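Homework help board

Subject: predicted structure for assignment chain

Our instructor gave us this sequence and asked us to write out the predicted structure in token form, then describe one feature. I got the tokens but I'm not sure how to describe them. Can anyone check?
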Amino acid sequence: MQLSDLLVRDRIACDILSGSKKRVLEQLSELIASNEPDINQQEVFESLINRERLGSTGLGKGVAIPHGRLKASDKTLLAFAQLKEGIDYDAPDNQPVDLLFALVVPPESTQEHLQILAALSEMCRDEQFRQQLRSAHSSDELYTLLTHWAPKQSQ
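My token output:
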């Protein structure tokens, strides 16, 4: 599955202000639920916040991937936010987070869930790519970067 299969421009936010972890999870929940009449924003938020209670989804280097399962959905949904300023996210390196993916999957999508998390994690390990995401000035620019990323070929 390609990122372009999961991510649409309407679920990408660029240069947003978010003063806390809770607030950014609310904003990501809004993005996921937007244009999805069968998806309840509050249920998305509860799924993301419940997963955070188990342990931070911060990866380090300014990146987090909050994720959860959504009983009311039969499809996988992804959102992305680039923050104007980093926030405290309880990341393992104690660095502020300013790049966030939010992922919700149906309850039975265990393998797909793990594959997507692995792909996003690999993408976010690329320092040059993280810098490109931070330098983007629009949701369209972020969309292009995110949907055209390819892993570097080992030599």
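Reply (TA_rk): Your tokens look well-formed. For the description, you could write something like this. The chain has six helices and six strands. That's the kind of observation they're looking for.
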